[in-house]
Design goal:
InterPro entries: Acyl_CoA_acyltransferase (IPR016181), GNAT_dom (IPR000182), N-term/lysine_N-AcTrnsfr (IPR051556). This protein has about 160 residues and is α+β, with helices and mostly antiparallel strands. The chain contains 4 helices and 7 strands.
Length: about 160
Amino acid sequence: MTIRKLKTSESDFLADMLYEAIFIPEGTDPLPKEVIKDKSLSKYIQNWGKDKFDIALVMELDNQLIGAIWGRLLTDENKGFGYVDNTTPELSMAVKNDYRNQGIGTKLIKAIASEYQKIGVECLSLSVDKANNASNLYKRLGCEIVEETETSWTMKKRIK
């Protein structure tokens, strides 16, 4: 397995991973793929690479992409679900179903934290559904709950 930066030609994979990152509770029908075109979601990948805070890494295994993590600095005027402030990039992550629970998420989070440290970022944020098993991973890696809704947590991780 190799972690590397997303290539410009792989933007379709980033869109696929955005769709995969949407938490669907067990027993619930999946949402239509077009849901990622909604403004609340498309902001996470639209015009990718526009500034230095757009960082995306992929996990590759046997020449196949099996997961991705990416971050973007969303501001008060264009808040994401995990927005905490105008200086904290918000992370999104997905791993293909067959490869979950194998430590890939841990490796991806550590790798992107390292990339953000290089450009002077002090904290990262994310949003996670309370019922999503990934919330345990985030807690284990030092993410702290900074805001709570009925169904989700906004979490923040200090990386510097």
